[in-house]
Amino acid sequence: MPPAQVAERTGLSLDTLRYYEREGLIGPVDRDSGGKRRYSDDDVFWIGLISCLRDAGLGIADLRQFTSMLREGDPAGDRVGFLVRHRSELQRRVRQIETAISVLDDKIVYYSAAD
């Protein structure tokens, strides 16, 4: 697939796709005879995985670590442990957000009654 099609399919910019490749999170991406990138279905899978983990709040260093674990065939227990630690952090953040929403709801009720 050409880069523009992958960008449209994944919702990522061309710059982001190139950045992920430079950082070793995807690829190396094949190139055609003219040197243009051609993404495979496997590349698109990796992009989806990286995007999901990015949305979950993982930084580039964490993404490098996890993709390295996958590529090097680290034991499943190590990968599960990695993901469980990050899930715990996400759950902590969700609780913080829920508390903030509750405070805002209280303020909305308070200020609505003041009018």
UniProtKB/TrEMBL annotation:
<feature type="domain" description="HTH merR-type">
    <location>
        <begin position="1"/>
        <end position="69"/>
    </location>
</feature>
<dbReference type="InterPro" id="IPR000551">
    <property type="entry name" value="MerR-type_HTH_dom"/>
</dbReference>
<dbReference type="InterPro" id="IPR009061">
    <property type="entry name" value="DNA-bd_dom_put_sf"/>
</dbReference>
<protein>
    <submittedName>
        <fullName>MerR family transcriptional regulator</fullName>
    </submittedName>
</protein>
<keyword id="KW-0238">DNA-binding</keyword>
<dbReference type="Pfam" id="PF13411">
    <property type="entry name" value="MerR_1"/>
</dbReference>
<dbReference type="InterPro" id="IPR047057">
    <property type="entry name" value="MerR_fam"/>
</dbReference>
